[in-house]
Amino acid sequence: MDRMVYRVQVAGTERAFEATPDETILDAALRANVNLPHDCRLGGCGTCRIRLVEGSVSYAEFPLALTPDEESRGYALACQAMPAGDLVIEPARGLTEMPPAARHHAVVTAVRPVSALVTHLVLEVPAAAFLDYRPGQYMNVMLPDGTTRSFSMASIPCDNRVDFQIRQIEGGSFTQGMLQRVQAGDKLEVELPLGTFHLRAEDDRPLLMVATGTGIAPIKAILESLMDNPDCPPVSLYWGGRTAADLFLFDEIRTWGRRLFEFNFVPVLSRADAAWEGRRGHVQHAVTADFDDLSEHAIYLCGSPAMIIDAKLAFIDRRASMEHIYSEGFSHQRARPVQA
């Protein structure tokens, strides 16, 4: 018996591909060289969100980064959704062309702790005169066993150097292994740039940036790209951690208001001690306490998948536009972003 296949058409284009009932839309698209936006491939970041113009899909397990409200409005996550018939789909982010990824031999130029759990790593790619990437994207580090670990660039493109803020993960083969041993002059094999989390420069809405932990890294790169820019929109940055020690960029961020337009920085701690005089609780709840209406904002979420899904639900209740929520979820269980 012939294997059943369905036709998947990308709305508004001539691109189409075939998919079987037991494979995800994303896998089928990539097999046909149709590069739908995607990152984590685990249903945790929401980058691969599509709108079902025609047809329906099924899931082996309902994905974390899709809300029931989004599903009811015809959205799906391509990395988890399997076709139940012929489909016409529309990528929520469009088929944006990104700088091509390439492998490089990088040289460690600096490595130092910035907190008990976070390391600042600076790499240089000698063979590249200039590293082209979009602030917000990430890099893969190739490990000796053939696996990879992924970390967001924490700086804007500048010559052939790039820096990272890397959180130590218990039992992590890179963060508690290689990273603890590397020194200036050591070499790493890397692949960059990767990912589709980046500033939508065509969107002039006020920016609401929400991060937890080292989710601040790609947000930092994005905001650095806006510094001293006369077209910079108003920026609100909410950064959550457990204790004050987690806010390793606190002093630096407080200076950003000199170079960003109407910059508002709100640090939030969930396990603060008695000495903390700032906001307490979860970072997404601090946002909803401050904003009754988010309908006019472009929202960038980066950090734990649990924060992202809770934030999306809470912000939609504040009339946030799903088409203007961009997210990157960090997971400790995988080798790519969703990240470290």
TrEMBL record:
Q: Which CDD domains match?
A: fer2 (cd00207), flavin_oxioreductase (cd06189)
Indicate the segments forming the 2Fe-2S ferredoxin-type domain, all copies. Answer: 6-95
List the InterPro entries: 2Fe-2S_ferredoxin-like_sf (IPR036010), 2Fe-2S_ferredoxin-type (IPR001041), 2Fe2S_fd_BS (IPR006058), Beta-grasp_dom_sf (IPR012675), Cbr1-like_FAD-bd_dom (IPR008333), FAD-bd_FR_type (IPR017927), Flavoprot_Pyr_Nucl_cyt_Rdtase (IPR001709), FNR_nucleotide-bd (IPR039261)
Where's the FAD-binding FR-type domain?
101-200
Any one GO MF term held by the record is: 2 iron, 2 sulfur cluster binding
Cofactors named for this entry: [2Fe-2S] cluster
List the protein's name. CDP-4-dehydro-6-deoxyglucose reductase
Q: Which organism is it from?
A: Bradyrhizobium lablabi
